[in-house]
């Protein structure tokens, strides 16, 4: 704690894991007394670097770039890049730490990492984004590689940014390799990768609901965010017969009582991915919807909640509102969107609750499938990737049951995901010795 005193998000993520994993370590001699968790919380390597670029006005801008190479016990470092003004060491270390467990859960051989910059893509021209991405990669390239560290997208890093990053990597290394995932389809990308995190989250929630003999059909679903994860969580929800009532961004949320159907969602995608404007613009086309400025959507009555925006966006009072309104299932699309206090309430109420490291693992799992296709120099069909994704989400769900089922039959998915993720990494670290 003292060593990381200025890193609240990192401490939050570690505490959540420690609370469930330490009792398990104490009961199992092979892990006990080996300081294995202490080793896991220290990143193998942290890289910070200067990123200088020139804006459209000719001004020189300076940002800070990061890559946290957290753990490579079971495979090359793997995890996204985030471009957002709030990015700092604490946030990236929490994300990298979560990533280690998540990647372990996917059943694929990937270690954990995370990176990014405090660069704010909002309001920047395409040329500015390109210049920033090129400048960022002109340093990062020496620390990554297809068998070393394979970054992907995250908040503020989508297909456009991955393209610019890949272009500079290829130029500097003079090789065409699968060093990034989330690539375009014509240059090494995988089908279903853009959809994977959102779809995977809904597949996971579907698995949870099926333990109660229930499904998405006819359910009212509240979603936060309107970026990559939220959009495809909404798409899959609609396909499974659920009614999507809300979407949001950092300015507030929209509520459409009639439901955001496939046509309306296509409009949201146009607003967010092409025009890159605020979610409130939805009302210009659909004036019957309402916009709640500066608010999050948890006050809306629903059966299922899918937080898909950012960390710590669902607080204790939000959890109370959700429970009072009869919510039966919360499945995290974002990383650590629910605070510790909110999770406590979900557990006490014994509703279905999935932590992001389990329920949003479909994105990185499909990135793993993209890496496999790149290595094979082969391309799987949409159906093949989607069925593998479904299978992986079902396997993760099964692992959560194996390690998280309490004596009274309640499935504690937090405990299940933490222990299942831990065991595989810890076993590999023990086998490889003290390095
Ligand atoms: P995007 O950048 O595509 O979208 C992020 C969305 O969240 C936007 O609607 C954004 O609104 C909103 N948001 C971001 N920061 C804040 C904030 N501080 N307060 C309120 N709203 C905010 O990112 P993704 O959809 O890719 O990522 C969303 C979450 O999912 C993140 O937690 C990410 O780590 C996690 N995740 C993503 C994966 C992926 O494959 N993309 C994989 C696994 C997890 P605005 O535009 O106003 O900023």
Automatic annotation (TrEMBL):
Record-linked SMART domains: ELFV_dehydrog
GO biological process: glutamate biosynthetic process
Binding annotation for substrate: 78, 99, 102, 153, 367
Catalytic residues identified in the record: 114 (proton donor)
Residues reported to bind NAD(+): 197, 228
Record SUPFAM superfamilies: Aminoacid dehydrogenase-like, N-terminal domain (SSF53223), NAD(P)-binding Rossmann-fold domains (SSF51735)
Keyword Nucleotide-binding: yes
GO MF annotation list: glutamate dehydrogenase (NADP+) activity; nucleotide binding
Site, Important for catalysis: residue positions: 154
Keywords from the named record: NAD, Nucleotide-binding, Oxidoreductase
Signal peptide location: none
A Gene Ontology cellular-component term: cytosol
The keyword Zinc belongs to this UniProt entry's keyword annotation: no
Glutamate/phenylalanine/leucine/valine/L-tryptophan dehydrogenase C-terminal domain segment(s): 190-433
Domain of life: Bacteria
The family this protein is said to belong to: Belongs to the Glu/Leu/Phe/Val dehydrogenases family.
Subunit structure as annotated in this protein's UniProt entry: Homohexamer.
Protein name per its UniProtKB record: Glutamate dehydrogenase
Species this protein is from: Siansivirga zeaxanthinifaciens CC-SAMT-1
